[in-house]
Amino acid sequence: MRLNASAPPPPTAPHRLPLVLTAVLMLVGGLLLALPDRAGAAVDVLISQGRPATSSSVEDSTFGPEKAFDGVSTTRWASAEGIDPQWIRVDLGPSATVSRVKLVWEVAYAKAYRVEISADGTTWTSLATESAGNGGTDDWTGLTGTGRYLRVYGTARGTPYGYSLYTVEVYGTAGTTPPPTGAFTVVAAGDIAAQCTASSSSCAHPKTAALAQRIAPSFYLTMGDNQYDDARLSDFRNYYDKTWGAFKAQTRPVPGNHESYDPAGAFAGYKSYFGAIAYPQGKPYYSYDQGNWHFIALDSNSFDDAAQIQWLKDDLARNTKGCVAAYFHHPLYSSGGHGNDPVSKPVWQILYGAKADLVLNGHDHHYERFARQNPSGQAAFDGIVEIVGGMGGAEPYAIETVQPNSQKRISGPYGVLKLDFTDTTYTWQYVGVDNQVKDTGPTYTCH
């Protein structure tokens, strides 16, 4: 416990009061001169309350990272139990200056941790280090740091539990750039419902569905192969509906190749199960807006359909939003078993020409993120970020041939994409069914 407070002097006899007052004033003045960080703390401005927050894990959705920044002393963030390290991060806006950080720990405190700051969420600079923490309140003053993101990075727990903070208060000066607005979260996954149920411990889609619900996003989107093996209506009802079906009304799906295998006719079960949710504009491709984002859901089984291609061009021409994300099943680039799928290249060319920002895919059963690249696979500042998120429940595929511009690949742990959007930026985490963050993407600004 770090407390920056001085105890009052003991009572004195009345006839000595002027002398005592003089001594006290001299003492306080000397302390203020000797400890400028304590003096400055009184005028520090709270800049973290209500800001977007993320964390390495949560115990459950009741204890999300935003609880540490909501200004309510009785709510808290709690990580998964028994695992080191863990962290909680807040977005302070561009070029914030930090002078003080106050932490109020719950019973599950950190014995060792660092307070760090970063301009980009990737490279971190330490502001303060604790190696013998004992919980309670830690008040770090006299700090000097500038950046956008601040995190508390716990390296050793003080109890057998996890890490839990009632409050993280960051003081200083906010950046001159207006803070991001229109923040919202989306959960995404592809390749989801194998023909199994929660009665089997190896069945993954009940676990990814539970994780998706804990995150509690604004909506869910799927990148195809929602139901295995042939996506019959009976299979949707027996498997997908028992898990991901719990939030069907909030889901914006697209079909994969397995939806086309239905013996009753291509997409018959898919269309019957989702209805207008998957066909809001009468076709298996559609678009919608959220905040300053325009989302485009496409059917990559029919990228040779001239009607869909013309619709895409017209839709992009009508778009008035500043940021664009598209999602479909077959990835143009992938390091997995299916590999690169050139069927998607003409669509990439259209999206690239319209300055689209993000493409989400499934098909290969692994997680992978790529740096910004153009349709020819060349690194480009104005390129599109592609994420493969095919770990929703189907059997994982091995990584086979690593593609240029591939930055991170994970095969094995099932999970979902947690995507965080603002009116001008986007970032994401790949979260495993164990509530652990397996990867955190950079924060990008829209084109």
From TrEMBL:
Keywords: Signal. This is Discoidin domain-containing protein. InterPro entries: Calcineurin-like_PHP, FA58C, Galactose-bd-like_sf, Metallo-depent_PP-like, PAPs-like. PANTHER family: ACID PHOSPHATASE RELATED (PTHR22953), PURPLE ACID PHOSPHATASE (PTHR22953:SF153). Residues 34-173 form the F5/8 type C domain. It holds the Pfam family F5_F8_type_C.
